[in-house]
Amino acid sequence: MRRRGTGLLAVILASLAAGAWLPEPGGGPPAGHGTHEQHGVVRTAGRPLAGAEVTLLQAGNDFGAGARTLARGRSGADGRFRLTYRAPEDPDAVLYVTADHGEPAPSHLPAERRVRPVRLVSMLGTGPRGGKVVLNERTTTAAGFAMAQFTRGGEVAGRGPGLHNAAAVSHNLADITDGTVARVLATAPNGEQTSTLRTFNTLAAILSGCTTGQTCGTLFALAAHPGRPAPRETFQAVADIARLPGNNATRLFALADRRTPYRPQLDKAPDAWTLALRYTGNGHELDGPGNVAFDAAGTAWIVNNYEFNPDPRQPVCGSRILSRLTPTGHDVPGSPYRGGGLYGVGFGAAIDPRGHVWATNFGFQGTGCPLDAARRYRSVSEFAADGRPLSPPGGWRVGGIVQPQGAVSDRQGTVWIANCGGRSVTRIPGGDPRRAANIAPGGDRLVKPFGVTVDTRGRAWATGNGSDNVMLLSPQGRPLDSVTGGGIKRPMGIASDTLGNVWVANGGAVVAPCEGTTPAMVAEAVEDIVTRHVDASVTLVRPDGTTAPAPFVNDGLFLPWGIAVDGNDTVWVANFGGHRLANLCGARPSACPDGLRTGDPISPAGTGYTSDALERNTAVQVDPSGNVWLANNWRTVPLQTNPGGHEMVVFIGLAAPVRTPLLGPPRHL
Fold first, then answer.
1. SS3 call for 657
2. CA 377 to CA 362: how far, in whole Å?
3. Residues whose CB falls within 8 Å of the CB of residue 186, separated by 6 or more in sequence, listed in order
4. Please, what is the end-to-end C-alpha distance for the chain in angstroms?
5. Which among 113, 406, 471, 524 could bridge 418 via Cys, Cβ 3.0 to 4.6 Å?
6. Exposure of 23 by Cβ count < 10 A (0-12 exposed, 13-18 middle, 19+ buried)?
7. 367-399: per-residue pLDDT in tens?
8. pLDDT by residue (tens digit) across 125-147?
9. β-pair partners for 28
10. What's the pLDDT tens digit per position in 501-535?
11. 3-state helix, strand, coil in the chain (%, to 5)
């Protein structure tokens, strides 16, 4: 109650400082203490839209909760509107504006079904904001994609922080103050460097066919998911496209109107209507990002292989920084962080229940670095939630750590680390390094352990990239079983689902760069692979250790590396080749598009979700807003002096949100 009271007092004081506003007839309560004004303009295809019903809403605070109307009015002949409203008691409430227009459905239908086909939207974000807001096809596309996982029936609702972060991300796509492309999308490393800007403009053009009264019926039919009701207005149509972007992609492209002001546009239909943004933080920190972990607020903690240098010909040593980005891709104040023994972290990034961040020091460095990596690859670094290093300058050198790669924390705070160069797993009970223990099954039972996850029973599963198996460990660390077969071949990443299964990404031709294998050898092994390798696949391992009869295979899998499970138990795979992201139906087919079974591709079977924003990707993770993050770990043609890529790539609104930090199996937000 104190927080709400304080927030309301701040709003009242702000409104008093700004002075009183003239009320708009029919636009809300009379102006006065505690009231605010929102004005703006509605446009379609660059022209003012008169007579639109404009509504200011407060998003529902939980899934299924209804949005609350704060004010309502109409746009004038010039498309302009002015609304006066009382600020919500909750200072963190997410606000948005809609503009409805067009002939409603036939009068014989119930009132709740008599929906106008044109709904334009702009996400305001949290708290009252001054200045003009524009509603047009661009702002609607931005809102529909960013809020795709929080939009049902044309209304926005959901839980924080995912809902709030998604509203902020929408401003990376469209500038709601003038209806143009937002700076993040319009400029490098996005802008002309990828096709996302052209895709975004083409989507806005597709909408304009409906907003100008020509193609609404066709748009709604093509946006509909198989076996589900078609959307009835444009905002929901965009959200439906965002959630299943490969559906009717070519036929939707045919609706684009090149005469609209939304340029540049695509020259041909994409394989799917995804929007992928590149994030680079301060622009000179990411070099070979290996993995990412999200804290409770949804900020992204990113580990790097190499120290930053934009020139791939310049030799670089291992990275000594831990990056932390906001959900919108900017540095959190005070980051990146240093110390704690960080050096050349690879695939290991985990956050425990206390919010402590763990990064495994693999000792990556480019050729020509004078340092001895063997003196640096025997530790893990620990950081507090505010970025302070908690481990000593040499890192925690405990539990027999050797060339560590994957890491995970369970819900009790026990940290598990895969020792790629040690044929073992390190277990740190309760995150207490003094209690660390090394678990070595012995002999060739676990060679080149790379990825590690924890299942619903608290058991740990580690992939053996060099032994073609997955090792199952009890919650106390006792080896229980070695799982082989089912297509497990050169396994890399591993992830668990809510039903107790684990999912394994089989790299096929990818040999983990440890225990005598160098990164240069990895580069040579994958250099000439230009089509999907025969052994590239995903294996489902059931809780009892049995596997599905055959691995899951499609052309969206191209040197699979990282793997993640979202809040609906669908499976996401990052690929070290092919510039593509794959999405598979998980063990709950009811959460998949109609007609799909476990292991079937949700992304286009022949391509996956391709993007020229991608390079060679290692990690994939899902944030609380349903955005899918991938690490551009290596350049497409990696020079071993400095092979690292320089971006995180974020597919907007594509997956079911996940509650973070991720502590083993995913939990829906």
1. coil
2. 5
3. 180, 197
4. 24
5. 406
6. middle
7. 999 999 888 999 999 999 999 999 999 999 999
8. 997 777 899 999 999 999 999 99
9. none
10. 999 999 999 999 999 999 999 999 898 888 888 89
11. 15, 30, 55
pLDDT of residue 34: 74
| 316 belongs to a structural domain | yes
For 491, the token pair is: 């396994």
Task: Decide: helix, strand or coil at residue 429.
Answer: helix
Quick check: bond before 336 cis, omega within 30?
yes
Q: Residue type for 422, please?
A: G
- DSSP states of 121-149 as a string? EEEEEES---SEEEESHHHHHHHHHHTGG
Q: Angle formed by the axes of helices 137-146 and 234-243, to 10°?
A: 40
Of how many residues is the chain composed? 669
DSSP per residue over 195-262, as a string? Answer: SHHHHHHHHHHHHHHHHTTSSHHHHHHHHSPTTSPPPSSHHHHHHHHHHSTTTTHHHHHTT--TTSS-
pLDDT in tens, 433-487: 999 999 999 999 999 999 999 999 999 999 999 999 999 999 999 999 999 999 9
Reference 33, options 60, 14, 61, 52; nearest CA is: 14
> What are the residues facing 323 on neighbouring strands?
302
CB 544 within 8 A of CB 569: no
What SS3 string covers 153-205? CCEEECCCCHHHHHHHHHCCCEECCCCEECHHHHCCCCHHHCCHHHHHHHHHH
Domain annotation covers residue 268:
no
In degrees rounded to 5, what are phi and psi of residue 237?
Answer: -60, -45
Radius of gyration of the chain measured on its C-alpha atoms: 25
Query: In sequence order, what are the residues at sequence separation of 6 or more whose Cβ sits closer than 8 angstroms to the Cβ of residue 332?
Result: 299, 324, 325, 326, 387
| Total domains, the chain | 1
Confidence (pTM): 0.94
Nearest Cα residue to 280 out of 306, 311, 295, 302 = 302
What are 252's two structure tokens? 């939707």
Rounded Cα gap, residues 487 and 659, in angstroms: 31
Residue 552 sits in which domain range? 276-651
CA distance linking residue 268 with residue 283, whole number of Å: 31
The packing angle between helices 137-146 and 162-170, to 10°, is: 150
Residues 468, 210: Cα–Cα separation, whole Å = 53
CATH number of the CATH domain containing 486: 2.120.10.30
Does residue 510 lie in a domain region? yes
In which region does residue 344 sit, left (phi positive, over 0), alpha (psi from -120 to 50) or beta (all else)?
A: left
Task: Determine the pLDDT at residue 527.
Answer: 87
Residue 200 token pair: 């975004």
Strands 132-135 and 35-44: parallel
Tokens 């690292």 locate to: 644
In one-letter notation, the amino acid at residue 62 is D
pLDDT of residue 466: 97
In sequence order, what are the residues at sequence separation of 6 or more whose Cβ sits closer than 8 angstroms to the Cβ of residue 217?
none
Q: How far apart are CA 127 and CA 88, in angstroms?
A: 8
